[in-house]
Amino acid sequence: EQTTVINHPSLGRLEIQANSLKAKPKKKRWTGSFSAGVTGSNTDQDYDLDSTSQLITQYKDEVNLLSFKANTEYGFSRSASEKEGSTDTNQGQIDLRYSYTFSGKSNAYISNIYDYDTLNQVGANNLINSIGLGYDLIKTDTTTLNVSAGPSVQTIWGGKFCTRDKYCGNTFAASSARISFDWDPNNYFNLSLSNQFTGAYVDGLSPSNNFSGTIKIYPLGDKKLFTSLNGQLIYNSLTSPQIDNSFSLQLGTQLF
């Protein structure tokens, strides 16, 4: 059998059999996961059903990072006095972002964030398109902390009273800033946090803020099946209502 000899400065001469040497596994460039959760209740003739789902895909190599995240939340209830029932929640978000590292920890990005809440009276739909520069404050194999900022365009439309609102149905110049944190210390745990602030140039400055976070726990330590706790806190001064917060517990699996 072939052997490899290493002269270590502290351990001295080491002989290792060739079949004992294993190449370091390459990181996957494409990753994806899907998770969902359902809750329901029934008392006499009252029914309540809530469902949530989340799809995340990402491509990452030495200089390119493309990420896509979509989540939905739907709630339905019917009481004894109702024949057809009512929709209590119908909302979601799509976050598409591409960044290119052009020098060390510096990068350029383009992003599109669309969120909807069909029950909003003003601003059922909100779209923010942004382009700018970012910088990785921390960039290791397990931890990434990135800050970015740039000009953006914000569009608000939809809702029962949209036509009565002087801002709804319009597009505004704006500026956006985002901070994102991802920590993947082992095969059992992952933490992802993101916060984006946007200021639209209307009535001076009309702010909106979107914070989201996900904790994933892989009980088997194989990066396949997981339980996730998800939270999203949204404030938008141009919509009614202005605050929209949601939390969910889901079961999911890595797709690839």
How would you characterize this protein structure?
The protein has 256 residues and is mostly beta strands. The chain has no helices and 14 strands. The strands form two sheets. A twelve-stranded antiparallel beta barrel has the order 3-4-5-6-7-8-9-10-11-12-13-14. A two-stranded antiparallel sheet has the order 1-2. A hairpin with a 3-residue loop joins strand 1 and strand 2. 22% of the residues are buried. The model has no long low-confidence stretch (mean pLDDT 93).
Q: What do the pLDDT scores average to?
A: 93
Percent strand equals: over 45%
Radius of gyration: 23 Å
Q: Please report the number of helical segments.
A: 0
**How many strand units?**
14
Low-confidence stretches: none
Main β-sheet description: 12 strands, antiparallel, barrel
Walk across the major sheet and give the strand order: 3-4-5-6-7-8-9-10-11-12-13-14
**Quaternary structure type:** single chain
**Which class do the helix and strand fractions yield?**
mainly beta
Provide a quick synopsis of the model:
With 256 residues, the protein is mainly beta. The chain is 0% helix and 70% strand. It has no helices and 14 strands.
Strand and helix layout:
Blueprint: E1 3-8, E2 12-17, E3 30-43, E4 46-60, E5 64-78, E6 86-103, E7 106-117, E8 125-139, E9 143-157, E10 170-183, E11 189-200, E12 206-217, E13 225-236, E14 243-254
Antiparallel strand pairs: 1-2, 3-4, 3-14, 4-5, 5-6, 6-7, 7-8, 8-9, 9-10, 10-11, 11-12, 12-13, 13-14
List keywords for this structure.
256 residues, mainly beta, twelve-stranded antiparallel β-barrel, two-stranded antiparallel sheet, 14 strands
